[in-house]
Amino acid sequence: MQATTSVFMVRPTRFTFNTETAHSNHFQGFMAGLDDSAIQARAFEEFDAMVARLRGHGVQVLVFEDTAEPHTPDAVFPNNWGTFHPDGRALLYPMCAPNRRAERRPDILEVLGQQFSLREVVDLSSHEQQGRFLEGTGSIIFDHLHHVAYACLSARTEQTLFADVCTRLLGYRPVAFHAYDALRQEIYHTNVMMCVGTEFAVICLESITDTAERTAVVTSLTGTGHEIIAISLEQVARFAGNMLELRSAAGTTLLAMSQSAYDALTPAQRHVLGQYAELLPLAIPTIETIGGGSARCMLAEVFLPATAQAAV
Q: Which Pfam families does UniProt cross-reference here (predicted)?
């Protein structure tokens, strides 16, 4: 299935502006008048409220505490370092920024292995030594139903590694392209400009400036029956592309996004999306601004099979 009922999140213990990622993530910013303690307090408040809201809508949320050492300022975005698949495999990804690599935590894998059936861990992190990066579902947007994967290429998403992971490890058809923001800078992660749900796709087509690449993406999406909801570069800047389809335990389809993303959508776009899912806006302005990532980035999907004990 495309949407999971289970995710895990990492509660940020030392949430700060990450200077090691700022050169490629142009969505990061500062908040005037707030010192580190105020930023941390707001990050905790926003994180806890988001967890409560997701759980209140029937999503299973596992919460792990960030570690004080080593300092991992972006630990709140765990979707970048691992994907967890229905065949019982976990893939660990090579990360561009050195201070993000410690986010890959064996203790989290151990807990997941106790609650789900985790039969194999495929560690791709050795590619970091060759300067080849692929940052999980930041880099890759999966269409699980049709075995297609989309990626906008950047310093954090290397084309040959993307193609190899898709074809050799996962059996997915890779669709690669280039995407740029309003200042003609590379968009650092695919998931800020694109979201693929079961029957719809939210995408900033104007960010794909190469006509052939844009046509290939549209052809792929329409070929799998997705209704395309096109968003603008201005909406991308407010994280309107950073959404994730989820399912509640009762089977309700949800579309998680930040409050900023929700506010950026037009009434017509909300109406179309509302036909496919219940829209679930989450207020995370501090995490978005300082971290340069949004609601989807905070959610690591768990597609691993339930253990026999959990199934009972």
A: DDAH_eukar (PF19420)
